[in-house]
Amino acid sequence: MLAQPGIKRARNAVSGVFTSIYDLIISLLDLIFGTTQRIIGVRGMPYVFVLPNLLIFGIFILFPMLLNFVYAFTGGSSFSPFDRPWAGTVNFDRLLACENYLEPRTCGEDLFWRAVYNTIGYVVFQVALMVLLSLITALILNRNIKARGFFRSVFFYPVLLSPIVVALIWKWILQENGLLNGILTGLGYDKIPFLVNAQWARLLVILISVWAFMGFYTLILLAGLQSIPADLYEAAAIDGANPWQSFSKITMPLLMPTMVVVLVLSLIRAVQVFDIVFAFTGGGPGTATLYIVQYIYSYGFSSPNKQFGLAAAASLLMAGALVILTLVQLIARREEN
Amino acid sequence: MKLNKLFIPLLLVAVLLSACGTTPTPAPTATKAPVPTAVPTAVPTEVPTAVPTDVPTAIPTDEPTAVPTAEPVELRFTYYADGVEADIIRPLIDKFMAENPNITVILDVVPYKTIDEQLPVQVESGQGPDLARITNFGAYRGKLLDLRPLLADSASYEANFPAPILEALGYGGYPDTLTVTGPYVNKTLFDQAGVALPGEGTTWQEWTELTKQVAEATGVQYAIAIDRTGHRFAGPAMSMGATLIDAEGNFTVDTPGFRAFAEIVKSWHDEEITPKEVWLGAEPVNSCIAAFKSAQLVMCMSGSWQINGIAKDVGDAFDWVVVPNPTGDGGSTGIAGGSAVVAFAGTQHPAEVAKLVEFLIQEENYREFSAGTLSLPAHTAVATNGVEFKTDNPLVLAALSAYTAEVPKLTDQAVSLNVHPYAFAYYRNSANRIAQYLSGELTLDEMLVNLQDDIDKAIAEAQK
User: Fold this and answer.
1) What is the CATH number of the domain that holds B84?
2) Does the ipTM exceed 0.90?
3) B204 and B152, same structural domain?
């Protein structure tokens, strides 16, 4: 009881200190922004508030992007843009010089074209499989099944893992002396060269990336499915529609905007595939799983044989392809609307 | 009213800032340098006590009384280790810091990949360390600190290391190890199979047949393999007659010797007697030594830097030996190589960096490093006076002796490859292109054409 006045006094003192600090901060902000507003006027204030974000965007995105152009049009092995001689379109010419574009071995930079064709193959199969499996999973998880919450978590869980972790886990399972081959040999079967056979490696890269990222797209589609009013299905059922008719006439048309989002996102992500494949196969065997971003990485960063100009030119070509793909999809969506 | 409100908090902040403020921080030497009592009293007499007059005045003198007045200096030393190198150099650096309390050396031990991929960019962008341990001697042309004017005894420095290496380094460092490539063989498996180990003069074809016999007889998974790198590949190719580097220093890959060895390695893959993950797996530089250590492989073509790791990991699980490099039309040669400690021109403390280098190349310190790391010395005086390697393991001593015997057999091009200014253009490109050939993506002819093209383009780009 006797201690209470002391505690109260201490509490008041602490409170006073915090109040003073708070007042100080507010006063400082008032001083800064008040002065700024007096100088540039009210109309200029929104720019002041977006300035921090603009700075971050400018330094970490816009500036490197512009720098990429400098590297793409200059040559030499110097990292400093100031020490690089002007090369014009030489880097692009090197990348695009081909006797027959359908045959990478006839191209000057055959690895670039191998990477391009590998990426196209990967994108086509991975995106198709990803969208299809995500849709099927979302449809199943949208039904009133037992332990629905548990299964939603199960499918989403791989998304939480780092792609490198995913790649390493699967590498340990599938490498020559890995878990799966251990089981196979234990059962008396021959080992399967999962990682050193080109066909197996290509297939597994697709399957593993689908496994790793499917949960994310499933979640988006699930949200799309749940936004479809239930009374539409009830009305269709009363009219005698069978499940397929409900799916094709109600679900798919109403889900289409969400599908386009999933398609755009998965397409962009597939073109940019790198980390999971780099850790899983390293682009091999040979160049069987060498994709365009790894090609850029190897010339720009990893190899002692660095050719920044070539890497920058390849990245600009890839950016151009991504812009075209996105525009095509946006135009298609607009026409559909 | 508003001003009054502002005044009190501002006063509070002023008091807080003055409390946090400007008290001089104690010199780091007091905590970072090792305890002076640990320093042998004999050491200072062996360190040059007189600073030459042509050395910049910023160099701290070796006199202990002068040390406290010197400005504290921090040197960053980026270091990679294949085995115990970091453990051996750390006490040497501690000893150096004890002798030079104003200099703190921060040893950043990093994976080799960091040295290979990130260090060149760091140095190029001006963010490099003061010193580093590297293997790519030609990668830092023009970016290393010419140590000669800074060293107290430059003549000894130049006399004790091979001139081609110092020239390749631009006199910006010293080779801390000399390595030679060569094959390791699992002797226990040979004994179990009842196959006698062949000696000098055996060809790669003969080794292939013998190791196949041993693998079949003992039920071991793989017979023979070679590290995935153009460096290891070059030795056997040269032994089979490849002239990889001509008299003018140009690279030529399409030679009968290079073709012949590429075909041999391809046959290993086709016959499935080699671990395919070495050349076709995920790692850009991959060694067969892991399969060898786990006794899944009879013969692994790697190099002398693996001795420590093999001794440590294999223990007494099986007996292993280093055998002479197989012979062919071009003789029997491994590839000389090694690592070097280099100083970067961008350092803010050239005098202190030179002082550290001078300390590390002193005969007794260099010998201690070679003895502890079980590495072949590139230091003439150390090699001449001999190294008492710190091991009782007869297998290790035999391996060191076997590698030492390989040194005189090295051909000129085998010595010049690693110090070639454009060796980088050959190394990684050759590994990648050969892997394409081994996986069946390219024919041998296509591989050679593409590889030559890669090398020529990389050199042309680097020369711009």
Assistant:
1) 3.40.190.10
2) no
3) no
Nearest C-alpha of chain A: how many angstroms from B73? 28
> Which chain B residue shows the shortest CA-CA distance from A297?
B117
User: Which structural domain range is residue A150 located in?
Assistant: 112-306
Report the number of distinct structural domains present in chain B. Answer: 2
Query: Same structural domain for residues A119 and A70?
Result: no
CB A301 within 8 A of CB A54: no
Pick from A37-46, A185-194, B51-60, B204-213: least confident? B51-60
pLDDT tens for A47-81 read 999 999 999 999 999 999 999 999 999 988 788 88
Pick the last residue of a domain from A83, A104, A121: A83
Chain A residue nearest residue B441, CA to CA: A286
Minimum distance, in Å, between the CA of residue A265 and any CA atom of chain B: 27
d(C-alpha B305, C-alpha B315), whole Å: 17
- Closest chain A residue by Cα to residue B459: A305
B390: contact with A, CB 8 A cutoff: no
Q: Cβ contacts of residue B227 below 8 Å, gap of 6+?
A: B278, B285, B286, B287, B288, B289, B300, B301, B302, B303
A7/A130 same-domain check:
no
Nearest to residue B295, comparing CAs of B196, B222, B400, B203?
B222
* B228 DSSP 8-state letter: B
pLDDT over 90 (residue B248): no
- Retrieve residue A153's tokens: 């978590």
Looking at residue B12, its pLDDT comes to 37
In a domain, B40, yes or no: no
Cα separation values, B360 from A3, B48, B50, B454, Å? 67, 13, 18, 38
Instruction: Give me the domain span that covers residue B189.
Output: 180-336+405-463
Query: What digits encode the pLDDT tens for the residues A171-201?
Result: 999 988 899 999 999 999 988 999 999 999 9
CA distance A19 to chain B (A): 9
- The region, left, alpha or beta by phi > 0 then psi within -120 to 50, assigned to residue A259 is alpha
Query: Do B375 and B326 belong together in one domain?
Result: no
User: For residue B28, is the peptide bond before it cis, meaning its omega torsion is within 30 degrees of 0?
Assistant: no
B293 with B410, same domain: the answer is: yes
Question: What is the distance between the alpha carbons of residues B87 and B187, in angstroms, rounded to a whole number?
Answer: 30
